[in-house]
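Exercise (ungraded).
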Amino acid sequence: MSKTVYVTRRERFNAAHKLWNPAWEDEKNLKTFGKCANPNWHGHNYELFVTVKGQPIEDTGYCVDLKDLSDVIEDLVISKLDHRNLNLDVDFLKDKMTSCEVVAIGIWDELESKVNAMGCKLHSVRLHETENNMVEYFGGE
Amino acid sequence: MSKTVYVTRRERFNAAHKLWNPAWEDEKNLKTFGKCANPNWHGHNYELFVTVKGQPIEDTGYCVDLKDLSDVIEDLVISKLDHRNLNLDVDFLKDKMTSCEVVAIGIWDELESKVNAMGCKLHSVRLHETENNMVEYFGGE
Amino acid sequence: MSKTVYVTRRERFNAAHKLWNPAWEDEKNLKTFGKCANPNWHGHNYELFVTVKGQPIEDTGYCVDLKDLSDVIEDLVISKLDHRNLNLDVDFLKDKMTSCEVVAIGIWDELESKVNAMGCKLHSVRLHETENNMVEYFGGE
Amino acid sequence: MSKTVYVTRRERFNAAHKLWNPAWEDEKNLKTFGKCANPNWHGHNYELFVTVKGQPIEDTGYCVDLKDLSDVIEDLVISKLDHRNLNLDVDFLKDKMTSCEVVAIGIWDELESKVNAMGCKLHSVRLHETENNMVEYFGGE
Amino acid sequence: MSKTVYVTRRERFNAAHKLWNPAWEDEKNLKTFGKCANPNWHGHNYELFVTVKGQPIEDTGYCVDLKDLSDVIEDLVISKLDHRNLNLDVDFLKDKMTSCEVVAIGIWDELESKVNAMGCKLHSVRLHETENNMVEYFGGE
Amino acid sequence: MSKTVYVTRRERFNAAHKLWNPAWEDEKNLKTFGKCANPNWHGHNYELFVTVKGQPIEDTGYCVDLKDLSDVIEDLVISKLDHRNLNLDVDFLKDKMTSCEVVAIGIWDELESKVNAMGCKLHSVRLHETENNMVEYFGGE
C-alpha cells in the first residue's frame, strides 16, 4: 500500500507555569499577562495530540505502532513535563516564555528526529491548554 | 521566532433558527428541510472554533493574546448571535438561509478584517451545530 | 438475580424556547430572565439522561431492554420536543415556564407510568441545557 | 410547585498545587505523594460542579437563578482559586493539604451559608482534578 | 477530619462480547438481542467509574491514594477484561450473560473485599458501554 | 455562492476485531500486536467523521443535505460494520489487516464514488478507535 494516512496519538500532562518575561518590570508583566502572571504559578491539564503521516505497511496495517509512538512521546516529552513546572523544570523550555505556542514548538523539536526515524514523518503537534484554548504547529517557518 | 503556529479559540452561543426559504411554498420547505423547517423554530448550542495563524512574538510567546481574540469574537459575533434568533435578530444573516455553512461564512466575514489587524491572520471558522454535524470555512472561493 | 442496578439511557433533542412569564410586564421579564427572555426565542441542544432501577433478569442480563426504553423515550418525549418550540409546540408544557427544572419534571410525568410498566422503575430524569447548566429530578415532592 | 429538583452549575479554574506535608521529611513526602510532590509545583484544569436542591418557583420555573448561583461561586470560590497556587494563595486552604478531597470540602464550607440563603440548599460539591480523578462531598460528617 | 467524601477513579477497557443465551434457540437469541447477538461478536470501549467513600486522613488529605486504587482496579479488573472477550476469556463472567448490568455486578464482586481493606468503602461501580448506555451498581440486593 | 465549505458528519459503530497476520506464526503475531492479537477478539466503539467539501447552494444554504450524507454512510458503511466482527463479517475488509489505518482507507473506498455523486467531494475520513488513537485519510497515494 502506498496510501498516505495521518495517525494521531493523544497524551496528557499536568503542569504548573506562569507567563512572565524576566526582562520586564513586574507591572508590565501583570498588565500584559493578567492572571497568567500570578507569581506563585497556576497550572493546567494539557492535552497533546501528536500526528504523524506515513504509508501503512501491508504486513501490519500500521503506519507506525502507536505503542512505540506513545513510548517515544512518553520518553521525550511527557516524562519531562508531567507534574512539573514548565518554567523551572524543563530543559528544552529553559529561558523561554511558556505560552502554549512556545511549548508546542518545543515539543515538536524534541520529537522530530526520533519520530522521523520510525518510518513515518512528524506532521503536527496540537496542544490544548484548556477546553477553550489550543494551538497547532506543523514545523518549519 | 518566525515559526508559524495556528491558535484556536472556542466560544459558544445558544440560538434559535429554522431552515425556511421564503421563495418556496410551505410544502417544498417541509419536504426539503424536514423537521428543521418547524415554523415555530428550534435551536442549538453552537460551538465556534476560530483559528488564526501567526508567528509567536519573542517577548510574549503569543501569536495573539487569546483574551483579545476572545473579546473580538464576543464583540463581533457572540453578542449578536447568543440567545438570539439567527433568522430574525442578526444583521449579517438578514435574508440568508441559516444553515451551518452560511452562518460560518457570515462569521468569517464579520471577523476577517478585525482579526487580520491583530498581527495574525484568520485561518478558519469551524462551527458545530450538534455533536454530529459541523462545518469549517477557510475563506476565499 | 435480585440485585438492584440503575440503568441510564441518553437521548438528545434540539429545541427553541424562551423564559417569559405572560402575567408580567415586558420590563419585568427582561429584568428577571435577561437574554433568556429574547422575544424571538433562542435554543439549545438538550441532553436527556433517563435512569431506571431494576433487577437484571437471569435469562437476558437486562433490567430493561435499552432499545425498548429508547423507543418509549422517543415516542413520549423526543418526538414531541425535538426540533420544536418548547413554549408553543409541546402539549405537556402548555402554559408552563420552560425552565430546565420544569421541562425535566414534565418529562418525568410523561415517562413515569409507561416506564414503570416495563418491569423496572423510573429513578431520575437528568436534563442538560448547556455544558454548564443541568438539573435532575427524582419524582415525588 | 413543591417538587424537589437538583440543579447543577459547572465552573472551572486552573491552579497550581503540590501535595506536601511540611511536618514530614522530604523523603517521606516524595515516597508518599510521588510526582505530586514535585517541589516546583504542578497544576490542573479543575472542573467544579455545584449542586443545589430546591423547589421551582411557579413564576419563574427556577429553583435558583443560575446566573446568581454562578456569581456566588465566582465570588467565593473561582476568584480565589483560578490562576492561583492552592497551597500559597488561598485563605481557606491555608495550612491544609490540597488534595482534591480537602479542596472540595473547603469549597463546600465557603459556599454553604451564602447558597443556603438563596432559597435553595447546597447539596453537593463535585470536583474533577483530571478526566480520571474526581471527588464529591455532600457536607456533614 | 471525619467528613465523608466520595472519590471516583475512571479506568477504561476495550473488549469483545455478544449477548447470547446458550439455553435458547438461535432464533430467540436473534429476536431478543438483535444485532447484539451477532455470532462473530462485536465490541466496545468500556468506561469504568469506581467510587469509594471514606474520610480524608489529615496527614495526606486522601481518603485513598488513587494510585493504589487504580492499581487494584488494574490488577483485579482491567487486566482481566482489557483486549479480551467478555464471554470467553473472563473467569468471573463464566456462564453469565455479558450485559452491562451483569458485568458491573461482576466488577463489584471482584473489587469489594480488596477495596474495603484499603481504609475506604466501595460505594458504586458505574460502567459506560457507549456514550448513550450506562449502568450503575451500588452493591447489595 | 461559490465559497468552499467543509462539512463533517459524525457516525458511530461498535465492532470486534483483532490484529493478526495469518501468514505469520502465532508467536510473531503476539510479539508484534501484543494484546491486540488476543485470539478471542476485542472491540471498540469507533467514531467516524466523514468530511466533504462543496459550495453551499443558495436556495438551501447546504453543501449537502446531512440527512442524505448520513443515509449514504449508514447504507455503505455503518450497516456493514456496526455490531460486526471487522475481520470476519465485512466484505470490503476481507483478507486485510483491520488496523485503524486500513479500516479508514476501506471506508473511503466504499464512500468515494457515491459521495462524489451528491454534488460535493469526499475530503477525508477520520476514524477514532479510542479516545487516544485516531487516523485520518484524505484519499490518493
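Further reading is listed at the end of the chapter. For now, observe: The radius of gyration of chain B is 17 Å. The domain at 5-137 of chain B is CATH 3.30.479.10 (Tetrahydropterin Synthase; Chain A).
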